[in-house]
Write a structure and sequence with these properties.
The chain is 40% helix and 16% strand. The protein is an alpha+beta fold and 213 residues long. It has 2 domains: 115 residues, Transposase Inhibitor Protein From Tn5, Chain A, domain 1 (Alpha-Beta Complex), CATH 3.90.350.10; 90 residues, no CATH class. The strands form 2 sheets. Strands 1, 2, 5, 6, 7 and 8 form a 6-stranded mixed β-sheet that branches. Helix 6 crosses helix 7. The longest helix is centred in the C-terminal third of the chain and has 28 residues. It is globular and about 75 Å long. The relative contact order is 0.08.
């Protein structure tokens, strides 16, 4: 809540389309804080074992959506009582048979698709961290130096992604049996750049080839 207050102080003149958050960002106080401001629509994921009430019966989320097929979404018709507040609940059955369940105070029909936009944020975090640049390994604590490091990594991300797109034109990434690529466009470009840089003396021509124009 303190962090979001800081955000509003700096960007209060901007319209917030919606706030998305994963399952650890839940609770009575947090929901109450968000519901006090009607201009902050939220899409917050909750766990399958949480209990919801319609005012008469308490049932687990997993029970309410037990009949939901894989790939299908469902919005409960009426609001449910959760952590002392009335909210709408929407859910989708994922490929691994688990549930993606989202609580919101408005426009529940778009809650799942809105929440799905978090995927790009998670992808970015993964690239910056263990699946790419290992940002968590830095021992920098100075804010200005960290800011410069993030700027450099952002440029490196763009370079790797553009290189991956360029390589994809000549040698497309293999598609596996499950229908997805063997590696991401970022990883394709990142691995290629890393191989060149680690063998720069022998691959200077390839290095010049991948320099951004």
């Amino acid at each position: 809540m303190e962090l979001f207050n800081q955000f509003l102080e700096r960007f209060g003149d901007r319209e917030v389309a919606c706030l998305t958050a994963d399952r650890e960002f839940v609770g009575k106080a947090w929901f109450g804080y968000l519901l006090d401001d009607p201009l902050i629509p939220f899409r917050i994921r909750i766990r399958e074992n949480h209990k919801l009430s319609d005012g008469r019966v308490n049932l687990r989320v997993s029970v309410l959506f037990a009949d939901l097929p894989v790939g299908q979404t469902k919005v409960l018709r009426h609001q449910r009582w959760l952590w002392g507040h009335w909210v709408y609940i929407a859910a989708m059955r994922l490929e691994d048979d688990s549930l993606l369940v989202v609580a919101t105070q408005s426009k529940p029909k778009s809650a799942i698709s809105d929440y799905a936009k978090r995927g790009s944020i998670e992808t970015l975090f993964g690239i910056f961290k263990t699946r790419g640049f290992c940002l968590e390994s830095t021992h920098l604590t100075d804010a200005e130096r960290l800011s410069k490091l993030l700027a450099l990594l952002s440029l490196a991300l763009c370079w790797a992604f553009l290189t991956g797109e360029w390589l994809q034109q000549f040698k497309p990434i293999t598609i596996k049996k499950h229908g997805r690529r063997a590696k991401s466009i970022f990883r394709y470009g990142f691995d290629h750049l890393r191989n060149i840089v680690l063998n720069l003396a022998q691959k200077i021509d390839q290095f010049l080839e991948v320099l951004p124009g």
